[in-house]
Write a structure and sequence with these properties.
The chain is mainly alpha-helical. The chain has one domain. It has four helices and no strands. α2 packs across α4 and α3 packs across α4. The longest helix has 27 residues. It is globular, with a radius of gyration of 13 Å.
Amino acid sequence: MDITDFYGLGSAPIVTGIVELVKQSLPELDSRWWPVASLAVGVLLNVAIGTGALARPLPEAILNGVLAGLAASGFYSYIKTYLRG
């Protein structure tokens, strides 16, 4: 096991940032779609990184993307709740 085994979860903050940029660009989009957008961005990002730079199998990259997307949407919910006090 090496450090590249954890590339999926390491991309969760990047996924959060990308989804937040999309939110600011498309404020009229209903908020129920943001978790789906988070999953999509997580999968796309991890497939690009995993199958490209790290030469990982596609199913592994997809699974890591799903985990990153779920982690990113949970992270965003936590931060939003924390900042509201």
